[in-house]
Structure formats: structure tokens, C-alpha cells
Specification:
Number of strands of chain A: 0
Number of helices of chain B: 12
CATH topology of the largest domain in chain A: MetI-like fold
CATH topology of chain B: MetI-like fold
CATH superfamily of chain B: MetI-like
Shape of chain B: globular
Order of helices and strands of chain B: HEEHHHHHHHHHHH
Number of domains of chain B: 1
Distance between the termini of chain A: 44 Å
Oligomer: heterodimer
CATH class of the largest domain in chain A: Mainly Alpha
Structural class of chain B: mainly alpha
CATH superfamily of the largest domain in chain A: MetI-like
Radius of gyration of chain A: 24 Å
Strand content of chain A: under 5%
Number of strands of chain B: 2
Largest sheet of chain B: 2 strands, antiparallel
Largest interface: A-B, 96 and 92 residues
Low-confidence stretches of chain B: none
Order of helices and strands of chain A: HHHHHHHHHHH
CATH architecture of chain B: Orthogonal Bundle
Helix content of chain B: over 70%
């Protein structure tokens, strides 16, 4: 009886703390983005609600926000589609075909994916400079493919391991080629997994910072995170209203996607494709 | 099936793996080997490149700023990870209760995880603003401190500010992993324990914690690997200051790359690489990943 009461009080307090802790910065970002005076908490100026920050961030050309957004979406999109294909092919091979080194491929891929970015970026810069690719889309697309592929490979490997072998073995015995089986049988069944892997890859590429900071130099290829990190006002001041509006625009689709996608992964990837 | 077709099947497997292996080799393995190679040279823009063997590493040993960033990085890991595991466990236990609106609560906890790190960092930077940030406003509102805190002005408060921001950003990840672990524990075990008259406290320490131990180990190592190479959050919030007191190893290495000193920057990067590598091997051992495909 008393244990139950204590538990209820603790639980309620925990929930309140959890919500305040997790949501306050996000709400603060939104609130500042719709204020005419980001310094309103000092008490010396009014809040003055306005959408001017959003309007300026989108329309003032010299801020380059839309260019950064376009760069991020194009780069993230190309990376996601490419990685979806690459990872599906390799996950199929490891889940279906017996070959020497089969057990070591996932281990090696996982190990490589844990290499710190700082141990890659210096030499990557030299490679890209030698290839004349600094400040171009390929300078980011190529390393992003390598850097996000392990994640997609892992999601798809666990997905494909759950599709029963009998499902496509019959076609193999009937003499269908591996690529035909992959394309006509496995890809359609694994589609939910492929889509969720591509979404995760897109988010990772969209958010990446260090490579983009090092390998781009201006708006031609600069992505949103670098743009927001280096955002400066027209007179060198820190334009908090603009930064928070730009942040909110860049964040909103990601939050929606992540929340949607999280259900996706937990439900679909864990259960497998063939129910009943 | 004949030997010939089995051989060609094997060849197909390598063909399917080829794109993945090519990309990883070209843009991960070669750059890492290149970094190790470069660390053996004096490689500075506008200067002639010269072989230096361990010259850069000798310089590291005598570099007080390097040791400062090593100290900061290790201390940051030591403070952040326990806090994240503790909070993550609390949140996971809450979300594991059968509550109305559990889906909404879970979504709320995931918000920090979904926000891009750079966006989160700039928001925290504003929160810590001395004259109009949310942190000092809240302190004044609840009369906690005698005056506004110069959050990003002193080494100790900057450290604390970064810890709070990092714990906020990464606790959701720990929560998800621990929650997945909690959901594998059958309810009957708790029912039986309740019948036996155990307290909540006993059930947690005698049932939940022992069962979750492997999951906790995975979360712990994964978060440690991630934190040991931290850069972007610090780059934005403190820029490594004040006076270099919050410069992480990765940020310290980046600063040399940025100035064109690739030899010394690479030596620092190799140190980060080795630390992460040792932890990764541990992770692969603990995780028991070989079993996954066998």
C-alpha cells in the first residue's frame, strides 16, 4: 500500500523531470525563433512575437540558408539511395551465399565504422585536394557513402537473416540467377528495411559536421550544419533570431522523420518481413 | 550442385560485396593508413615535407596542451557516461511502466536524439548566454545563485555546461538501448518476486540489473567510443576555451589540420584512433557479434 504510493509519487516526479529535461531546449529554440528580440529574457526588451526571422532566413539571399539546405538535401539524397543499393547487395550476399570470410565481413565492417572521423579527415582532405574536389558535392558524397554504409549494412543484414531461406532457395534450385533472385524476390520483401536504412543514412549525412567543415569552403557545397555553426549576421554580430529560425526549419522534418522511423525500426526490423 | 556452380556462386558473393568494400577501402581504410603514414612526417603547408619518424610523437609527449586535452577528454568521459547511464536507466524504467500515453512520452524522450548535434549545440550556446540566456534566467527565477553565472567564462563552469549539453543530447540513445533490454524481461519474474514479498528496491538490484548487465555493457562501451572522439558539440559551445581548457583530443587535432600542420595533427588523430580501436575490440568481444551470422 505505502510502497505503491511512494512508487506513484516517484513515477510522477520522474515523468515531470523527464519532460522538462528533454523538451526545454527544443521549446526554447522555437520560442526564440519567433521573437523579435532574442535577448527578451534579460527583461529590458519586449518579446515582440514575429515571423520575421523565418521570412528573412528564407528570403535574404546573402544568408545562403536555402542554398545550404539544397546542398544538404541533394547530398543526403544521393548518399541514401546509393547506400541503400550497396548495403542491400552486400547484406544479401552475407545472408544467403556461403563463401570464405563470410563471418568476418560483418565484423570488419563494424570495426571500420567505429574509426573516429578525426583519424580520417586529415588525409581525406589531402586526397580530395589532389583530386581537385574540395568544395564540391562529390567531396562529401563519396566519404559519406563509405561512412554510412556500415550502418545500413547492419540494419539490412539483420532484416535479411530473418527472411526464411526456404523463401528464395526454391527459386535458386529452379536455376534463377542470384541477381534475379535479389532483385525480384528479396528487394520487394526487404523494402521496409531498405527504406528505414535509407532514412537513417539520410539523417546521418544531413547532420554530419567535421567532413563538411573540412572539405567545403563556401556556399557551393556547404551543408546545413556548417552553415548554422558559422552563421554570422550582416555586421558580424550573432543573429540569434536567424540561427534559431534556421535551426527550427532544419530540425522539424528530422524530428518528424526520426519519430516516425523509430516505430518503423522497432516494429519491422525486429519482427521480420514474413508474418505467418 | 556441381563444383563449378558453387565456385561461381562464391564469385557472385564477392561481386555483390565489391561496392561496399571499395567505398570503405577508399574512403575509410586508406585515409586512416594515410593518417598514420603522415604522422611520421613533418608535413606543414608551405614547408618542405620531411621524414621525421617519431618526431611528431616526441613533440606530443612534451606538449602541455596535448596533455591538457587528454585530461579533458578522459575527465569528460568519466563524468558524462555515468550520468547518461543513470538518467537513461531512470527514463527507461519510466517508459517501461504501463502508462497511458506511453507513446507520447517515448517520443518526447527521443527529441534530443532527433535534433542535429550542431543545432543542439547552438541552442545550448544561447541557453548559456551570460546576459539573456535561459540558464541564468532560470537561476534568477528560482533564486538559486547569488548572481548570474558566467557559464562559458571559467574552465569549471564551461566543463559543467558541456557535460549538461552532452548528457541531454545522448541520454535518449542510452534510454532506447536499455528500454529494449527491459522489454525482454518476462513480467512473470516480477509477479513471482512480488508474491514472495520483495520490495521495489530488491527487485531492481536482484532481478533487473543482473539481467540487463550485457545490455548496459554494450551501451557503456558504445557511448565511450563516441565520447572519446567528441568534437562538434564543443566546437560550437566553447570552441575549446576558455584558455584551451575544454579542448578535446579531436578538436585539438582538427586545429592543427586547420592551420595546415598535417604531420602533427595526424599524430594526435592516431592517438584518438588507437584509443577508439582498443575500445572497439572490447565492444566486439562483449557484443558477441560472431554468433550473429553463424
Amino acid at each position: 500500500m505505502s510502497e505503491k504510493l511512494i512508487k506513484r509519487v516517484l513515477l510522477a516526479a520522474g515523468i515531470v523531470f523527464m519532460l522538462i529535461f528533454c523538451l526545454t531546449p527544443f521549446i526554447y529554440m522555437i520560442v526564440v525563433s519567433v521573437s523579435g528580440n532574442p535577448s527578451f529574457l534579460s527583461g529590458s526588451v519586449d518579446f515582440s512575437a514575429t515571423l520575421a526571422n523565418y521570412r528573412d532566413v528564407i528570403t535574404v539571399k546573402s544568408l545562403r540558408f536555402l542554398t545550404y539546405l539544397k546542398n544538404s538535401i541533394v547530398i543526403g539524397g544521393i548518399v541514401a539511395v546509393t547506400v541503400g543499393g550497396i548495403a542491400a547487395l552486400s547484406a544479401y550476399a552475407v545472408s544467403r551465399i556461403e563463401f570464405r570470410g563470410r563471418v568476418w565481413v560483418p565484423l570488419a565492417v563494424l570495426a571500420f565504422s567505429m574509426f573516429p572521423q578525426i583519424s580520417i579527415v586529415g588525409y581525406l582532405y589531402k586526397l580530395m585536394r589532389a583530386a581537385g574536389l574540395i568544395n564540391t558535392y562529390p567531396a562529401l558524397i563519396l566519404p559519406y557513402i563509405a561512412w554510412t554504409a556500415p550502418l545500413a549494412f547492419y540494419i539490412l543484414l539483420s532484416y535479411m537473416m530473418q527472411i526464411p531461406r526456404d523463401f528464395d532457395d526454391a527459386a535458386f534450385v529452379d536455376g534463377a540467377g542470384r541477381f534475379t533472385i535479389f532483385r525480384k524476390i528479396i528487394v520487394p520483401v526487404a523494402m521496409p528495411g531498405i527504406v528505414s536504412a535509407m532514412l537513417l543514412v539520410f539523417i546521418a549525412a544531413f547532420n554530419e559536421f567535421l567532413f563538411a567543415l573540412m572539405l567545403t569552403s563556401d556556399h557551393k557545397a556547404r551543408t546545413i550544419p556548417v552553415g548554422i555553426a558559422l552563421f554570422e549576421g550582416l555586421h558580424g554580430e550573432v543573429p540569434w533570431g536567424y540561427i534559431m529560425a534556421a535551426s527550427a526549419i532544419a530540425t522539424f522534418p528530422l524530428v518528424v522523420m526520426s519519430l516516425y522511423f523509430q516505430k518503423f525500426v522497432i516494429q519491422d526490423v525486429t519482427r521480420g518481413a514474413l508474418k505467418g | 550442385m556441381g563444383l563449378g556452380s558453387r565456385l561461381s556462386d562464391r564469385r557472385t558473393a564477392y561481386l555483390f560485396l565489391l561496392p561496399l568494400l571499395v567505398f570503405i577501402s577508399l574512403f575509410i581504410v586508406i585515409p586512416v593508413l594515410g593518417t598514420i603514414w603522415t604522422s611520421l612526417f613533418r608535413d606543414v603547408t608551405y614547408l618542405e615535407t620531411a621524414f621525421a619518424l617519431f618526431g611528431n610523437y616526441r613533440r606530443l609527449l612534451a606538449d602541455a596542451s596535448f596533455w591538457q586535452s587528454m585530461k579533458f577528454t578522459l575527465l569528460f568521459v568519466a563524468v558524462c557516461i555515468p550520468l547518461e547511464l543513470f538518467l537513461g536507466m531512470v527514463f527507461a524504467l519510466i517508459l517501461n511502466e504501463k502508462l497511458p500515453g506511453r507513446g507520447v512520452l517515448r517520443a518526447a524522450v527521443l527529441v534530443p536524439w532527433a535534433i542535429p548535434t550542431i543545432v543542439a549545440a547552438r541552442t545550448w550556446e544561447l541557453i548559456y548566454n551570460y546576459s539573456y540566456g535561459l540558464a541564468n534566467w532560470a537561476l534568477a527565477l528560482f533564486h538559486v545563485a547569488s548572481g548570474p553565472v558566467n557559464w562559458l567564462g571559467t574552465p569549471l563552469s564551461s566543463f559543467g555546461a558541456l557535460v549538461i549539453a552532452d548528457v541531454w543530447k545522448t541520454t535518449p540513445f542510452v534510454t532506447i538501448i536499455l528500454l529494449a533490454g527491459l522489454q525482454t524481461i518476462p513480467e512473470q519474474i516480477y509477479e513471482q518476486a512480488r508474491v514472495d514479498g520483495t520490495t521495489f528496491h530488491q527487485r531492481f538490484f536482484r532481478i533487473t540489473l543482473p539481467i540487463l548487465r550485457p545490455v548496459i555493457a554494450v551501451a557503456l562501451i558504445f557511448r565511450t567510443i563516441d565520447t572519446i572522439r567528441i568534437l562538434d558539440l564543443i566546437y560550437v559551445i566553447t570552441g575549446g576555451g576558455p584558455g584551451g581548457s575544454t579542448t578535446s583530443l579531436s578538436l585539438y587535432g582538427y586545429k592543427f589540420f586547420n592551420e595546415g600542420d598535417f604531420g602533427y595533427g595526424s599524430a594526435i588523430a592516431v592517438v584518438v584512433f588507437l584509443m577508439a580501436f582498443v575500445l572497439s575490440i572490447t565492444y566486439l568481444r562483449v557484443g558477441g557479434f560472431r554468433g550473429a551470422v553463424e
